[in-house]
Amino acid sequence: MKSMEPKHLALFGLxxxxxxxxxxxxxxxxxxxxxxxxxxxxxxxxxxxxxxGYAGLFNVGVMGFVALGGLASVLVSMDPVEGAWGTDGALxxxxxxxxxxxxxxxxxxxxxxxxxxxxxxxxxxxxxxxxFFIFRAVLDPxxxxxxxxxxxxxxxxxxxxxxxxxxxxxxxLFAAGAAWIIxxxxxxxxxxxxxxxxxxxxxxxxxxxxxxDWLARGVKNVTGVPRPVPYEVNLQQADWxxxxxxxxxxxxxxxxxxxxxxxxxxxxxxxxxALIWLSEKALNSPWGRMMRAxxxxxxxxxxxxxxxxxxHLQIFILGSAVCGLAGAMMTTLDGQLVPGTYQPxxxxxxxxxxxxxxxxxxxxxxxxxxxxxxxxxxxxxPLGLMLMQGITAGMSEGNALREHLLGSAAHMRLMTxxxxxxxxxxxxxxxxxxxx
Amino acid sequence: MDxxxxxxxxxxxxxIPATAYGAQLALGALGVTLIYGILRFSNFAHGDTMAFGAMxxxxxxxxxxGMGVSxxxxxxxxLALPIGILATGLLMIGTDRVVYxxxxxxxxxxxxxVIASLGVMFVMNGIVRFIIxxxxxxxxxxxxxxxxxxNFREITGLDEGLAFRTSQGLTIVIAxxxxxxxxxxLNKTRTGKSMRAFSDNEDLALLSxxxxxxxxxxxxxxxxxxxxxxxxLYGLDKSFKPFTYFQLLLPIFASAIVGxxxxxxxxxxxxxxxxxxxxxxxxxxxxxxTYLGPEGWSPDxxxxxxxxxxxxxxxxxxxxxxxxxxxxxxxxxxxx
Lengths: 436, 336
Prior knowledge:
With 436 residues, chain A is mainly α.
């Protein structure tokens, strides 16, 4: 934390107070739930900060990368579904995916090798068209076989049955892969185009996860994703745990839940600290200075011989990978993958609020923003309800307006987040902890 | 071989719905492209602007319906539309005063305005959810069909029915009127010409004495009118649900970019291109091919290229292709 000003330390102190206050006034269990998601939000904010803060890339597809991370934790940690891995099922799907990739590669190859002209366009169109039908012809029977296996319980290919912690880096890799594809096409064009492209790819990733039941059961959701920490039920029966609970005089049931949350928090803190350390190192290295130079003036940076497009692609992939990592961690924490819960306002734009409010270009700012905004996101709802109860206190029971106001209090959080973003952008555009 | 029935099926399931949807997208994309051309940023709050305009119109429609006012065969919402436009316009101008004008004076980078529009999006989304909730709302009334499938079958004696809904007919008619008005305004009136001049070359426009604040004001009013109209027509045609309006952002932006950002003609072209591709790629052509094939034969599969759940993937795919091969769009747009 070198050279952090006292004012910024005080801001961190304030956020810590908010969390401790939540522990005292609500419950430590609630506080730890908020803290765990806050830690994950910080990691997402770090990822977005790399792209926006270091390099000025405008990525509004965070949700998609987060969801890919979630998919990774299912594909890595769930047990393989019995019967799916026959030659008629998952292997067929795998073959189809390889064929699909080969088609696209073939089309790209033909495009780059043939001289431009009508023949080239025609050849590429024919390859893509034929490839698509072959892909579907190979894929569809495989999908039918896999989805027919006990659809109420599985109906998907399952996963590799590996420890779930391994899924975290894999989630990063998945997101990096998607980022590479988008980056290759949309980077180097105008910034708005990257925004639209990322917005689109995020929606498509969610659509695929909702509709391809063979992959991760689609909207039927995957539950029971293995945990890296013990289960509450097992803890409550373990002798050492009961002894520990008795020693500190806590109720074993409540304590087991707190213990599990603390274990998660421990894991997340390790990841977060490692990422902050790496990001700080990178930001203060020649590479980090080059990134900021490119961000501030692309023309002069490229005149200095820096390959702007390659550097942009690099940082875009890195930042997206961090978001994917956070996504895998989140699914691990939830213990389930529910594609329907991925909402752009929650997983893309809220992260943006965190980065802007915290201070773009500053890793500590992103962390502060992550903790602060996530806390607000959770607490605005009860606060809004209290406000509405205050406003409507004078109205009679059963008054239509009163009912409406109380019922709508839940929507206050969107408005609040928007207002916070606008206010910070206007009056403190460099955020709470500005870039040094 | 039954060409007539095949054509009717194609009209019923692809061409008419796609034309109506294309008109809605075109109106939305025109708004995006005008903001881009004159205010020079991509407005992410546009979907929610449409939702807001539609919401006000729906509320007024309900009030009118409660008063017993109706337009006979036409939906009452048409009477409420001007009020919706006015309310949205006031909101837009207010937002501009409170949020955007500051960054304009600062000559902030376009991306800062985009981020500000994210904040506006949050707030507007919140307002809409707060007032009308997140559920589906139906507000269409009047005659449901211009031609119903049953009547069509009775009149023509064909097997295949053709339904032409009032909302589809209205969408097309109103879109044509709106676009004609817009182009007349941009090309013939003094204010419209000054808007175009401002869009082409801001410095030169300022030098020749064009009042930038007036241009901005008029732009927001026009955008409000286009967005509200698009939102109400979409709501009449399908149904009103705030979240779907947010999701419309993707096809709308795809239309505007594919046509060439900042180019109004391109926005219209892009809207129809996206709508026709979306619907024809996700339509199951089995019925049409069955009519075209020999008697008593029908294809095995549904003949659907992609399931309807992937309609976003279609607009996105087209967007990618255009971005890769012609980044300024089909009709040359501007790039800042």
